[in-house]
Structure formats: C-alpha cells, structure tokens
Amino acid sequence: MPAWLDEIVSEDTLLLPGHTACAGCGPAINIRHVLGGLTAAAPESKIVLVVPASCWTIIAGVFPVNAFGVSVHLTPFASAAAEASGIKAAMRLRGIEDSTVVVWGGDGSTADIGFSGVSAAAERNEDIIYVLNDNEAYMNTGVQKSGATPEGAWTTTTPAGATRTGQKKDLARIMAAHGIPYVATLALGSVPMLRDFRAKVTRAAEVEGFRFLHILGGCPPGWRYPTAQTTELARLAVESHYFPLCECDHGEWRITVRPKHPLPVGDFLETQGRFSHLAPGEIDSIQTHVDERWDALAGLETS
Fold first, then answer.
1. For 41-92, what is each residue's pLDDT tens digit?
2. Residue 152 contacts residue 275 (beta carbons within 8 Å)
3. Distance from the first to the final alpha carbon of the chain
4. Under CATH, what is the fold of the domain 3-300?
5. Distance between CA atoms of 237 and 244, rounded to whole angstroms?
6. Helices 230-239 & 26-41, crossing angle to 10 degrees?
7. Bridge-based pairing state of the strands 245-249 and 252-257
C-alpha cells in the first residue's frame, strides 16, 4: 500500500462515526482529508479547529459532544478569522509553538458576512490556515444565495425565473492579492485529484503565515443531485474547467490539474437540479465565462 494511502486508512478518529452531516455531504469527505493531511504532515502538532456559524457548527455537536478527534471552537459568523488569530497568539504566549489553528468556514462566512475579518487576518499575515468550505450557498439556513453562488443557479432567494445574475467571487485570486504565502483550490473526485488535494494540504502545513485553501464541496439537498454522486460532480467540475485546481505559492501561480480532454461545462451543470431551468443560450454564456476564467488563470502562470 502506498504511504499516502496508508495514512488515509489510519485517520478514522479525526471525524468520528455518527456525526450529523447529510448523506453524500462533500465537505464531510473534504474535512477528513484536511485534518488527515495536516496530521500526517505534522504528527506532533496540536490542531485547533475554529468553525463559524454553518452546517458544521451543527455537525460538530453540542458540548460535551464532539464529532472530531481535535479541539473545536464554535464562533459567530463574522469572527472566525479573528478568533483563530487570538487562539494562535494565546498558544504562543503559553509556550505552545507546535499548534496548527484551522478555520473551517463556509462561503457565507468567508465571502460575505465574515470577509472583513478574513481580509484583515490575511493582511496581518496571521499564522493560521483558513479553509473555505465552498458549497456555493447558505445551506444551513435554507439554500440562500451567497457571494460564491454561481451564475444561473437556483437558490431560495434566486428562484427559477430570477436566478443568480453575475458571477461568483473569485476568492482564490482575491486572497492571493493580499500577498499571503499560500493559496490553493482543491476538490475530490478522482485519484489524481486526491493526490493533488493531499499535496496542497501538506504544503499548507509546511508554510508559515496565512494560508488559504478553497475547497469545492457538493451539497446534495442544495445542489439537487443524488447523494451517491458527490465525488463524480467534483470530477466533472474540474474536468469542465468550472472549478480549476491551482495554487499560488509565494506569488507563483500554477495550474496543478490540467484535464487532457476538457468537458463542456454543460456536462457538469446538467447533473444538478439547481441548473435544470437553464436554456441552451444561458449554458453557452456560462461556457464563455468559464473559458475566460481559465484563460485568465493560465495567463497568471509564471512557469
């Protein structure tokens, strides 16, 4: 068994059985690999997980219950980055230098309500890892539009006939513009994507300063797809260029997974009920924007 796969098999205590995530929850898969990758990269490090208001404040459990094998702090929507900064400072004051403080925030708390705190922590280059768990809407409160909701998508606040106009915020490039040491996008849908995912988590563990991981996480009830299709949707998102996998390591941009035969974005959109109302012309428009974003990203590559 390859070493990286052996590490995954031994990570069962990081996200415990019996948690309350929905069947097919993409972030439930993602968070296990984030925590597992950090543990494998720094086995002696003390991991503290900071979770702002989201599905995951429910999934984590109510004290004294904890769905994780690490310490967890639950925070209001807007204060996760500030609390994580304070926890890291407090650990240092106590002489604990081997701590890894991780924010697990949704797109609402990251792109919208808590963005000022995220931006401020990035500007200060706080020594924390900020993970954007992106399921592209406010799922815990009923599937309302967020700044990360894609164009044309149905949500309860952008219903069919008045769906999301404009494009989702490009959080990876926005955070890279802060000059932070490391930014990466991640998704789990195939073995190459898993290797890419774990390599980026490992890299984040190695770097000091503010690190930002933007992870796509499918939501069956919010995206309206069968629960068994979560990893397949992630694969389609990457292979259609809908969600490019890239990193910016100390200012150096690189596309890390480059599909040999890119799929039309319609192959990704047609798998989800939230896009079922789209007309062919609207899909063509989304394809144009996907192509433009890919070309812009490719233009950033420095090698």
1. 888 789 999 999 999 999 988 888 889 989 999 999 999 999 999 999 999 9
2. yes
3. 33
4. Rossmann fold (3.40.50)
5. 8
6. 80
7. antiparallel
